[in-house]
Structure formats: structure tokens, C-alpha cells
Specification:
Length: 389
């Protein structure tokens, strides 16, 4: 391992646009890498015109099209619009990275297979580490196997290995000092009574997050529980449709749409609620689940792949995917049993402290970087048996 500070470039298109699991991982792991002595720079996206909505100090941004309002996952063929947006960013990012690659020891990419392909085609020698947030990536040019290392977590690991890919397990984690039970003025700010039962969902408004089922379940639950609220944090193309559904169900006054919440404010939102709900059809992991567990909240989730493994039976309740009636019953069970919520919350926080903290994940990633750098610096044997750098 070289004695000078490790220089790492993180390429994450959405880091300055909106926050999801991939962005949370990169922002948090990079912070802990910096604590361990690494020098970190971000390359991210920005709207074609105007500044990024979530600026980062010191980050480089590339202005490319971003149709935030377009419901690409609900419109037939809408994925082509999403693909074009990312293609444009990847092409520009490849030019920028190729020009500056020698300034870094490692380049970490959040998915973006086309970017990896173009970097290798341009002859970039700096090791490229790609993090795959889910196994259903789109890779028309075959960039994924060209990465010098692949990392993932949750259900993605085994699915990627089943495809014959070598993947390092770098677990998702949470800052347990930030996300913890703590005093919060969130209820007071939003006019929520101390005795009201509050359910929280932190998720982008996209189809697979299934806000539609969640609102149907909450409407059933709220009929017998008038002193209740549903708090929705996040942005996305289906927000307006979800707001319309809340009005149609007659629960608009009980549903609070927060929009995109600054990360440093999220712990106070969690701490003010009674239960974390997850209505997704599928989750390869779920940062919001471990954030809630770290805050000692019980988790009510659908049987959406990885989250049930996180909560098991002691940290939450699992119901079938898409079953609004079962979800409403889960809300009722938790609302009626404060002692159960407390036991589940305590179990979840203990699990986070034992398995999902950032320093441990950062240490594993730093070791992977070190191996890649050493491998690049190793002498290469010539056919005659000589060696050269």
C-alpha cells in the first residue's frame, strides 16, 4: 500500500440530484474513507440548466438532461428516456474521468456500466470499482465484467455470483451515532400531537415502492384510528399521483408529504415516529430499514426480498407483497402494542450495532482498494522472464 493518502474519485450521477440507496452508500462510505485518511472527490450530475438541487461542497458536476418530472417507470417505453439521460451523463463523465484519471488511485462508480466500458476503451489504467445496487442492471456494451472489482450487498451478491461474476460483499451500513433515539421537534413543527400514532415511509415515488398499496392500507387502518398520521419522505415522478390518491381516499389531511429531506434532518424525522413502513414490491437491501432500526423503530414491511431478513421476527412484522389488508392489520397490531414496538425497536438497534456500522464497511472497502493499487504497481513479467513496471 502506498504511504501517501489514497486518492479516490466517486462517480455517482444522482448524488447532487436526489438521494436513494446508491447515493447514501457513496456519501456515507466516502465520509468514513476520508476519516481513515483517504482523499475523496465526487463527480456527479446536474440539470442541463441551473444548479444541482442537492449541491455538495467540492464536487464536480456535469450538466446533462434530467427530466425529474417524467414517470419513466409508468409510461410504456419510458425506460428509453431514463436510458438516454444516463447515456448522456456517462459519455460526458468518461471524457472527464479519462482526462483526470492519473490524479486518482481508484475510481468508484455507482453502476453506470457504459462509463466503465468507455473508460476501458480509452485505456484508463486507474482501477475501477463498480458498485451494483441491484442485479437487474442494464449493460448493453458489456461494461460490468470490465470493472477491476465489483461490490454489492444484500440479495444482489448471490444473484450476481449466479451470473458468474466475482463480487465483494461490502455491507450497507448506518451511522448509529446519528440515527438513534433522541429528542425531536418534528411533531411540534408539523402540528402532530404527542399521542398520535405516526407511520413513516422514506422512499422515492417510483412504482416498485408501491405507495399505492400503502395508502390503501393506511386508509383502512385510519378508519378506526383517527389519531394517526402517515409521513412520506422522498421525491419522484409518482408523487403527484400519490397525492391525488390520498385525496380520493379521503385521507389527505392525515398524509404528510415532506419531499426531499436533507440527510442531516432525517434522524429527527425517524425519532419522532412510531413505526417505519416499507411497502415495496422488491428491495435488494434498503437503507431506510437500517436507519429506522438504528433509531429503535419497529419495521412493518412486505416480503420484499432482503428487508425481511433484516428484521426477522424480533425487529418487525412481515406481510405479503401487495396485500393492503394484511398491511393494515400490521399497522393495527403495532399501534395497539406499545410494548411490542419497544421490544422490536430495541432488537433492531442491537442488530445494527452488531452488523451494520460504517467503519467496518469502510475498512473492508479500503482493503479492497489497497489490493487493487498493489496489483497495478506490481512488476509485469515479459515473455523472456524479465520484469518491468
Amino acid at each position: 500500500m502506498k504511504s501517501s493518502p489514497l486518492r479516490v474519485l466517486f462517480v455517482n450521477r444522482m448524488a447532487c440530484l436526489e438521494r436513494g440507496g446508491g447515493e447514501t452508500f457513496d456519501l456515507e462510505i466516502s465520509r468514513h474513507l476520508a476519516t481513515a485518511g483517504a482523499q475523496v472527490l465526487f463527480l456527479s450530475g446536474a440539470p442541463l440548466f441551473g444548479p444541482p438541487p442537492m449541491p455538495m461542497a467540492g464536487a464536480r458536476v456535469l450538466h446533462t438532461p434530467w427530466l425529474r418530472w417524467f414517470p419513466w417507470d409508468k409510461v410504456k417505453g419510458g425506460w428509453r428516456v431514463r436510458k438516454l439521460e444516463f447515456d448522456w451523463f456517462e459519455w460526458r463523465a468518461a471524457r472527464w474521468v479519462a482526462k483526470h484519471a492519473a490524479e486518482f488511485d481508484v475510481i468508484q462508480v455507482c453502476e453506470l456500466p457504459n462509463l466503465v466500458y468507455w473508460l476501458k476503451k480509452r485505456g484508463v489504467k486507474t482501477p475501477v470499482v463498480m458498485r451494483l445496487t441491484a442485479p437487474n442492471y442494464y449493460d448493453p456494451r458489456g461494461g460490468v465484467p470490465l470493472a477491476d472489482a465489483l461490490i454489492a450487498s444484500g440479495t444482489s451478491i448471490q444473484k450476481l455470483r449466479d451470473l458468474g461474476l466475482e463480487v465483494a460483499d461490502i455491507p450497507n451500513a448506518v451511522d448509529a451515532d446519528l440515527f438513534r433515539p433522541q429528542p425531536s421537534d418534528f411533531r411540534k413543527k408539523h402540528g402532530i400531537g404527542a399521542g398520535e400514532f405516526v407511520a413513516l415511509y422514506v422512499a422515492r415515488f417510483q412504482a416498485f415502492k408501491n405507495h399505492q398499496m400503502l395508502l390503501e392500507a393506511f386508509a383502512r387502518f385510519a378508519k378506526d384510528r383517527p389519531a394517526s398520521r402517515l409521513v412520506l419522505a422522498g421525491s419522484g415522478p409518482l408523487r403527484e399521483r400519490t397525492e391525488q390518491q390520498a385525496r380520493e381516499l379521503g385521507i389527505a389531511d392525515k398524509v404528510l408529504f415532506l419531499g426531499e429531506v436533507p440527510f442531516q434532518e432525517l434522524p429527527g424525522v425517524y425519532a419522532a415516529t412510531d413505526v417505519k413502513v416499507i411497502s415495496s414490491d422488491y428491495e435488494s437491501f434498503c437503507f431506510a430499514a437500517i436507519e429506522a432500526m438504528s433509531t429503535a423503530l419497529p419495521v412493518l414491511t412486505t416480503d420484499c426480498a432482503w428487508v425481511p431478513r433484516l428484521v426477522a421476527e424480533d425487529a418487525g412484522i412481515v406481510v405479503p407483497v401487495g396485500d393492503a389488508e394484511a398491511f393494515a392489520a400490521g399497522l393495527k397490531k403495532l399501534a395497539d402494542n406499545p410494548a411490542l414496538r419497544q421490544r422490536m425497536g430495541a432488537a433492531g438497534r442491537q442488530q445494527v450495532l452488531e452488523r451494520h456500522t460504517w467503519p467496518t464497511s469502510a475498512e473492508k472497502l479500503m482493503a479492497l482498494y489497497g489490493r487493487l493499487v498493489e496489483k497495478r504497481l506490481m512488476p509485469v513479467a515479459t515473455p523472456q522472464g524479465n520484469a518491468h513496471a
